[in-house]
TrEMBL record:
Residues 2-118 form the Response regulatory domain. It comes from the Bacteria. Pfam families: GerE. It comes from Enterobacter nematophilus. This is Response regulator transcription factor. Keywords: DNA-binding, Phosphoprotein. Residues 134-199 form the HTH luxR-type domain. The modification 4-aspartylphosphate is found at D53.
Amino acid sequence: MRVIMFDRQSIFIHGAIHGLRKLIPGINITGACQADDLWAQISASPSAIVMIDGNLIQNEGSSFLDEIMHRFPSVRVMMVLAKKETRWVEQLMQRNVMAIIPRNANPERFAAVLDSVSRGMVCFPGEWVSQQSSAQALLSLSERQREVLKLLAAGESNKEIGRNLNISAATVKAHLEALFRRLEVKNRTQAAMYYTRATA
C-alpha cells in the first residue's frame, strides 16, 4: 500500500508514519509539508492513496482537489479534518474524495480507513454526514431514476442498465444526466458514492 501524507505539521506526519508502520505491515508511507514536494511524490506514485490535511487546502476551496483529480485520476484521496464544517464536508463529498477521517482519530481507525480505501471502498464518518438530506434528495428522483441509479451503483454499464430495465441506452443516458443535475454530482463515480452513502 502506497500512502502519501500532505500535512502542515511534520510532527503529525512522523507520528502517523510511526504508528501506521506498526499496524500495516509493508506500508510504503511518506510525507510532504510543501505542495511542490507533494506533486513530485504523486508524479512518482500516481495511483497512491493521498492523505491530505483539510486545513492546508480549505482556503483554496476545492480547486486544489480538482487539480489533483485532473492530473492524477488514479489517485485516491483521503481527507483529514480537525473539525466538522458541514459545508466543507459536503464540498469534499461532491468530489471524488474516498474518505474523511477526524484528525483526532486513533491510529487503529486510520489503519482501518486506509485499508478500506485501498480496497476501493468509500469511508465517511457517520456522525459528520447528513444521511437524512442525502436520502431526501434520492426521494426527489423519479422511481425510474432511482432504479437507474441503483443499477449504476452496482457497477452496471448503460447498456446493462438498459437491458435490465427494458429501455434504450439513450434513455438511460438521459435519466443519468437528469439525476446528476438533481443530486449535484458530476459523474458516475460521484453518483454511485452518493447512492451508497444515502442508503447505508
